[in-house]
Design brief:
With about 150 residues, this protein is mostly helical. It has 2 domains: about 60 residues; about 70 residues, no CATH class. It has 7 helices and no strands.
């Protein structure tokens, strides 16, 4: 399964976990709509059905132990940016594609060198020559959605 599909499932699972304003609203464990069942249903959309009674949710350490939940969405955001940067190298008009030395130097200068010292949108625009695509067209194309 592509990493972006896994991220979509895990993000959906996180949304399910945060549907409740407080712990008193969480369905009881013996309820047919308990959290584990909801999470297992979410995975069916992006992956495969889990065996009855299994509980993937209990092993989702990003959310349950690491306090990482909201940050999980950054994977999909990073994939979108990577797709946009890769599109420059994959453009048929780019001679040598990923092996183009001038483009590699521009990538190093505009993306790697500044790192997090400037806004990512500024770096992407400096490399691609256009503003960061808020519609994520390159990412959707990579996923086969567009």
């Amino acid at each position: 399964m592509p990493e972006s599909q896994v991220a979509a499932y895990l993000s959906k699972t996180d949304f399910i976990l945060h549907l409740f304003a407080d712990a008193t609203q969480i369905p009881a464990a013996d309820s047919p709509d308990n959290l584990s069942s909801m999470a297992n249903q979410a995975i069916r959309v992006a992956y495969l059905p889990l065996p009855e009674g299994s509980g993937f949710l209990s092993s989702f350490q990003h959310i349950l132990t690491w306090g990482y939940d909201a940050s999980y969405y950054s994977y999909a955001w990073a994939d979108s940016i990577v797709a946009e940067l890769a599109a420059v190298f994959e453009d048929p008009a780019t001679p040598l594609g990923y092996m183009n030395p001038a483009l590699g130097l521009k990538y190093r200068t505009e993306i790697l060198s500044p790192g997090n010292s400037r806004d990512v949108a500024t770096s992407v625009q400096a490399f691609t020559g256009h503003p960061l695509d808020t519609e994520h067209k390159a990412f959707l194309h990579r996923l086969g959605v567009q």
